Amino acid sequence: MASDQSPRQPAPQGSQVPAATRTLRVLRFLAGQPDPVPVDRIARACDLPRSTAYHLLGVMVEEGFVTHLPEEHLYGLGVAAFEVGSGYARQVPLQRIARRALAALVDRTGHNAHLAVLHGRDVLYVLEERAPGRAPLVTDVGVRLPAHLTASGRALLAGLSAAQVRATYPGPEGMVERTGLGPRTPAALRELLVQTRARGHATEDGEVSTGMASVAAAVRDHNDHPVAGVAVTYPVDEVERPAGVEALAAEVRRTADQLTRRLGGGRAR
């Protein structure tokens, strides 16, 4: 008689991997929505048959990863998904690696620095180091801002392929503005990203907050994929142009290079 402790044989790849992929796809989609959504929208966004979407959502509801609002026929993230996010927040591998480097960047420049990751068309700020005496910025931890307006977002977008950028920005819809500045069309954004790649760092000037500007560079992993943006934000009237901005850019690139090497990547571009 077989023991209960006998290791289980791995399930056939064809039966399990697609289901896992679909499940993760649904979770990722729900995580990017501001509110619960109907099953038809989930099925379309995740390229699933409606029956498959219903089945996956049913299992995820039972496991607590999805919440069903039956009166409204909507689905959203459940408590178990929050627990996973909380676990990530406790471990914060990227933030743990970056905190000391970001603090050193602040010491060298005297300006606030932050770390952001790309999430769809937004950047999510995951770490901030504030220089002594500096006022808090809009880029606080947990804040999302339009990627095409921020230096961090532009540094990350510049590291993506042209096809990825086109898929993210197929048209002008969603290309919002905050101060009346910034690219309003995908073509304008693509031209801005060409300039960013040529410079090796990204900039924004008054496009997020009037009177403030930022310079950023991308941190890359071992696959040369941009995983985070390191940025310094400064009052425009305190930094000489262009020499002062170039000096800040050099410090930001230095920090991005350091973190890229920590992640097993090559030189940050």
From TrEMBL:
Gene Ontology molecular function: DNA binding; DNA-binding transcription factor activity
SMART domains noted in UniProt: HTH_ICLR
Q: Return any one Pfam family short name.
A: IclR_C
Q: Note whether Plastid occurs among the keywords.
A: no
Keywords of this entry: DNA-binding, Glycerol metabolism, Transcription, Transcription regulation
GO BP terms: namely: glycerol metabolic process; negative regulation of DNA-templated transcription
Q: Which residues form the IclR-ED domain?
A: 80-265
Keyword Manganese listed? The answer is no
Residue intervals of the HTH iclR-type domain: 17-79
Q: Which SUPFAM superfamilies match?
A: GAF domain-like, Winged helix' DNA-binding domain
**The protein's role, per its UniProt record:** May be an activator protein for the gylABX operon.
**Any idea what this protein is called?**
Glycerol operon regulatory protein
Q: Which organism is it from?
A: Nocardioides marinisabuli
